[in-house]
């Protein structure tokens, strides 16, 4: 069942999403060599409570932290630990909160200190692939149009899109129908309707698409050890086109 949202509900999701965007913007500013993943998790957790919101990931299927922090070859769902970031790392930050019964979910990947041109290009291509996916999230298009546009762009750089994890509907729950793969065919899949709210989240590997989950049950890594990047926005399908609900409130910065 795909649950379509009213305009009032989209506002609610945007109120949640704005907090997520603001948090990621603040976290991005403090990322530098020497900070530990546990310190970042603490700041992410405090940010939610300061804004009268709840970290959405903590306790979700027993996930133990408030944010997912994925370093280098970690694709997604890295669990914050005592690892200390060093110059040259790339860090994925995936964060979600619940506010008054509605959820927002967003992710960015950022360079730590001085990073190789190859790593910067992987980050930029992944960021742009999300933007392209969002441009295709229009009423009357199909899920496959989003999927294809992301895959086509990413593969033109000889990178791979991850298959084992996909985007998702979101709103009154963190994960709702429908799944939104980052690979697929134009014109296939369900039709996008006004009121759908989707978390688009391309995960891009510098090498092959295969992933493995570590013994902790969460941490997903590239099978070939290659670098991976991830970006995500919560997006509403509206009659005026796609509307990103996880932008930071730029008037605060
Ligand atoms: N953005 C991730 C996702 O949509 C966050 C889930 S992490 C979890 O899958 F811990 F909450 F599962
Ligand atoms: Co998500």
What is the H/E order?
HHEEEEEHHEEEEEEEEEE
Task: Using the coordinates above, name the CATH class.
Answer: Alpha Beta
- Could you tell me which ligands this complex binds, including any ions or cofactors? 2-amino-4-trifluoromethylsulfanyl-butyric acid, cobalt (II) ion
Strand content bin: 25-35%
Describe the structure.
The protein is an alpha+beta fold and 253 residues long. It has a single domain (7-244), classed as Creatine Amidinohydrolase. The protein is built from 4 helices and 15 strands. The chain has a 5-stranded antiparallel beta sheet. A hairpin with a 6-residue loop joins β7 (167-169) and β8. α1 runs antiparallel to α2 and α3 (117-135) runs antiparallel to α4. The N and C termini lie far apart (39 Å). The mean pLDDT is 98. The protein binds 2-amino-4-trifluoromethylsulfanyl-butyric acid (MF3) and cobalt (II) ion.
Describe what is shown at a glance.
The protein is α+β, with helices and mostly antiparallel strands and 253 residues long.
Compile the SSE list and pairings:
Blueprint: H1 7-30, H2 37-50, E1 54-55, E2 67-71, E3 74-76, E4 90-99, E5 102-111, H3 117-135, H4 143-155, E6 160-161, E7 167-169, E8 176-180, E9 197-200, E10 203-205, E11 211-213, E12 220-222, E13 228-230, E14 233-238, E15 241-244
Antiparallel strand pairs: 1-4, 2-4, 3-12, 4-5, 6-10, 7-8, 7-9, 9-14, 10-13, 11-12, 14-15
Cobalt (II) ion binds near residues 105, 199, 201 and 232.
């Amino acid at each position: 069942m795909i649950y379509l949202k009213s305009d009032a509900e989209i506002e609610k999701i945007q109120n949640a999403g704005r907090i997520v965007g603001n948090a990621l913007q603040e976290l991005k500013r403090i990322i530098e060599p020497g900070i530990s993943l546990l310190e970042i998790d603490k700041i992410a957790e405090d940010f939610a409570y300061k804004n009268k919101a709840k970290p959405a990931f903590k306790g979700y299927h027993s996930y133990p932290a408030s944010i997912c922090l994925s370093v280098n070859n970690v694709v997604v769902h890295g669990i914050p630990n005592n690892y200390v970031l060093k110059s040259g790392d790339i860090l994925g930050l995936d964060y979600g909160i619940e506010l008054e019964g509605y959820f927002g979910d967003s992710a960015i990947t950022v360079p730590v200190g001085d990073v190789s041109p190859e790593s910067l290009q992987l980050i930029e291509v992944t960021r742009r692939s999300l933007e392209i996916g969002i441009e295709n999230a229009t009423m009357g298009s199909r899920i496959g149009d989003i999927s294809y546009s992301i895959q086509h762009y990413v593969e033109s750089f000889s990178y791979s899109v991850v298959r084992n994890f996909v985007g998702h509907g979101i709103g009154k729950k963190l994960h709702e129908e429908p799944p939104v793969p980052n690979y697929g065919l134009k014109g296939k899949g369900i039709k996008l309707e006004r009121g759908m709210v989707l978390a688009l989240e391309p995960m891009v590997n510098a090498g092959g698409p295969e992933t493995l989950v570590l013994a902790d049950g969460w941490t997903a890594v590239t099978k070939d050890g290659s670098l991976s990047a991830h970006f995500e926005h919560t997006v509403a399908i509206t009659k005026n086109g796609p509307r990103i609900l996880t932008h930071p409130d730029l008037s605060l910065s």
